[in-house]
Specification:
With 409 residues, the protein is α/β, with parallel strands linked by helices. The chain is built from 14 helices and 20 strands. The chain has an eight-stranded mixed beta sheet with strand order 13-12-9-14-17-18-19-20, with helices on both faces. Strands 3-2-1-4-5-6 form a six-stranded parallel beta sheet, sandwiched between helices. The protein starts with 13 loop residues before the first strand and ends with a helix.
Length: 409
């Protein structure tokens, strides 16, 4: 998974993966490895139908343990109860129409349905089936029942199926299923809150082909946006030009991506959203100045054989402006990417920005540490006088700690 999604806050947690009969069954084996990479233990059960597409040995080879067989076929008499006793969330991927019907009616006549019926923790279902099966009123009624009971659905997505039919029924992408499982493992301590996150660079056009920008990738902002969503917040991510993957519609209605290009567009979008937000986290590397536009078309070098000069105009300070317009109950986190000779010099700049920007918290880092890297080291200061230096660590871990800190302000 991408660097901005590798949260290590889940070390020691356990998931149980239930695999049902579907051509997509082979894809979910990759989830076992990806969850294990961030310290999550995984067990698995394959239905008899699933074993026609992929073998239990595949999951065992990837580290899933235990991998359960049929009812009454193992050494332990209560294997149908074990996932509910040893794991924190159950993921059904792919979830077949038959399994959804079993769960909705409370049947428990095979190992996986019995394990699911005895599981009193969060359940995530990622359906995969023919579009006509998915759209059948019986399937939709079962989905409605399960949603009412708290089952979280991921997908399905629209597309061309193995049978050549097209429509909704494709297994959601693995990143979405992977994240849905993490959300199921996460205490929802930000539930009911709305969070605005700006991220990435801005791109200030000069002529029709050239622009002024910077090297920000949006990794830190992406980690903060996804982290807040995992913890239950409704998130609005205002994204400068970036290829960063963020949660989409297959994961529900509480993550919204707003793509912008220029500093002006980012300001206008953030300002429109800001009145409804509980917190704003401003990580974007916004251009302080924009080149004065050349005009229509492409500037030709023949027009300036001896070189030329550009005039730059100031952009709106998004953080300071929105801090000045906030309600008393709104919280603001700002970022300061600086180039200083020492940690103490960085700390001094952060302290000054904390006051000049009107923020509740400022996170400062050296530019040499921040852009395009998987890790970062930062200095954090808040309006209550608390200060800390954080040693180099992955950006998702820094993001998680920032969200912890924000909750205490």
């Amino acid at each position: 998974m991408e660097a901005h999604l590798r949260f290590r806050a889940f070390t020691g947690k356990r998931l149980h993966l239930g695999v049902c009969g579907s051509v997509a069954a082979f894809r979910t084996a990759e989830l076992v490895r990806r969850w294990q990479e961030i310290g999550i233990g995984v067990s698995a059960t394959l239905t008899r139908a699933a074993r026609n597409f992929i073998t239990p040995l595949t999951f065992e080879s990837l580290g899933a343990s235990p991998v359960y067989g049929d009812m009454f076929g193992g050494e332990a008499p209560f294997e149908h109860l074990e996932p509910g006793q040893t794991t924190h969330a159950l993921v059904l991927a792919p979830a077949s129409a038959d399994m959804l019907a079993r769960l909705a009616s409370g049947r428990a006549d095979d190992m996986l349905s019995a394990q699911a019926l005895a599981f009193d923790g969060p359940i995530v279902a990622a359906p995969a089936m023919n579009p006509r099966m998915w759209q059948n009123p019986a399937t939709q009624a079962n989905v409605d029942i399960l949603r009412e009971r708290g089952v979280f659905f991921v997908g399905p997505e629209k597309g061309k199926m193995a049978c050549n039919d097209e429509g909704p029924g494709r297994l959601a992408e693995l990143r979405a299923i992977w994240l849905a499982a993490l959300k199921a493992l996460t205490p929802q301590d930000m539930e009911g809150k709305k969070v605005l996150v700006t991220l990435g660079p801005t791109r200030e056009g000069w002529d029709d082909v050239r622009f002024w920008t910077n090297a920000s990738t949006g990794t830190m902002g992406g980690s903060l946006a996804v982290g807040a969503w995992l913890r239950g917040a409704e998130v609005h991510a205002v994204c400068g030009p970036s290829s960063l993957w963020l949660p989409g519609s297959s994961l529900g209605e509480d993550f919204f991506r707003h793509d912008v290009c220029t500093a002006r567009e980012m300001f206008e979008t953030a300002r429109e959203l800001w009145p409804d937000m509980d917190a704003g986290i401003f990580t974007a590397a916004v251009a302080d100045y924009s080149p004065e536009p050349y005009g229509r078309g492409k500037f030709k070098k023949e027009q300036a054989a001896q070189g030329f000069s550009l005039r730059f105009l100031p952009n709106t300070d998004i953080l300071r402006t929105l801090a000045g317009e906030r309600r008393d109950d709104q919280k603001i986190v700002g970022f300061a990417a600086e180039s200083t000779e020492s940690e103490e010099a960085l700390a001094d700049l952060v302290r000054r920005k904390l006051l000049s920007k009107g923020a509740d918290m400022i996170v400062g880092n050296q530019i040499s540490d921040g852009f395009g890297t998987a890790t970062n080291r930062v200095f954090v200061a808040d309006i209550q006088g608390r200060e800390e230096h954080w040693a180099a660590q992955p950006k998702p871990d820094i993001a998680w700690n920032i969200l912890n800190w924000l909750q205490s302000i």
